[in-house]
Amino acid sequence: ANHDPVFYNAVLDNLIEDELLGPWFPNFQTTSIVDARGIERLHQALDSGKSHINSFNSLAWSLREEIDDDNLAPLLQKILTKEGGILVAIEILNMRVHRSKNELSTFSPSLVVAAREVMLKYPYDERQNQNDRLDYELAQIAQICLIGANGTEHAKKICQILTNGLHQYKISTFDYPELFKCLAQIQPFIFLDIFVGSEETDFHRMEFDDVDRDYNPINQILENVLIDWCEQDPKARYAQLVPSLLTYSRSQETDDLQWKPIVYSILKKSPDVQAILPGLERKIYPMSWSGSYADTLERRLILFTSLYDHPNPVIREWANEQYTQLQRRIKKEREHDLRENQARFERFE
């Protein structure tokens, strides 16, 4: 390439249709500068159908700065038309995002369009292709093509694809924790409309309540944004929001459980507190735990005692009732544990 460019280019021209080496042509093309002729060859290789689609991963591994966004975008769109091309396009695009992660605003409109096509064409319900790396890469790509006012319509389409997959039990929120988290952060109102404010919120509440605490997407949204969304229809939305939230956390000072600040804001602003309280109550009883269930529940008693002095008498009364009910449940669980231990001891004897 450096000392005999005429010969070098002639060899690459012939390799495109070569029966033996043609399937790996992109690996040869990325051995040097990918100039205008090189880009043309890559298109020819895609058109000829001789090159293995996976060999185009070399564009990710050896991506050159000379392939600018406007030249890369048509290549990605053509790769997407090939069987298996979606994963290759994700790999290439993610590497471009990774190398420019501090300059997300510099991506050209044509590459943003290509990125949106990638997001829309990815088969989210094909579990054999799902892994943590792909989830992360899709989230990275979403950050360049679904942000801002121009990305709202496409973000809505992606959210709708995901919610359809959830409804049909083809995917779980566990499959795409990074992507859900990213969508909640970059398009919070659309995310809340689709995953919290829809008519089938019971399904969504259950799904998101099972997400690992660090990845609960609703808790990635700023409190003022959550409140603004609720205020658009306060009577309905405060009650819809609570079951999707992680409502408490551990105090860094005492390690005791405490309500998150958003809970106090909701209790203060909701026009119908009675509609909020059942959602808070359900959060007290975990679906999974380690160790003694009675011990797990006992740690939650402090959540109710912290509301004994709340200015709203309805909340104070509710907190007292819930504390009493929780004590009864703890006593019942301890009695169950005692019976289990006795039975185990007798079997051992």
What would you say about this model in short?
It is built from 19 helices and 2 strands. With 349 residues, the protein is mainly α.
SSE run? HHHHHHHHHHHHHHEEHHHHH
Assign an overall shape. elongated
What is the overall number of helices?
A: 19
Q: What is the mean predicted local confidence, pLDDT?
A: 88
Radius of gyration: 27 Å
- Report the sheet-strand fraction: under 5%
Largest sheet report: 2 strands, antiparallel
Q: What fraction, in percent, of the residue positions are helical?
A: 55-70%
Oligomer: single chain
Number of strands: 2
| Class from helix and strand fractions | mainly alpha
* Side-by-side strand order of the widest sheet: 1-2
Low-confidence stretches: none
N/C terminus separation: 82 Å
Describe what you observe in this structure:
- The protein is an all-alpha fold and 349 residues long.
- 62% of the residues lie in helices and 2% in strands.
- It has 19 helices and 2 strands.
- The protein starts with a helix and ends with a helix.
Features:
19 helices; 349 residues; single chain; elongated; mainly alpha; two-stranded antiparallel sheet
Task: Set out the fold topology.
Blueprint: H1 5-15, H2 25-29, H3 36-48, H4 58-61, H5 69-80, H6 85-99, H7 109-121, H8 132-145, H9 152-167, H10 177-186, H11 188-195, H12 201-209, H13 223-231, H14 234-241, E1 248-250, E2 257-259, H15 261-269, H16 273-284, H17 293-298, H18 301-305, H19 313-348
Antiparallel strand pairs: 1-2
Helix pairs in contact: 3-5, 5-6, 5-7, 6-8, 7-8, 8-10, 9-11, 10-11, 13-14, 16-19
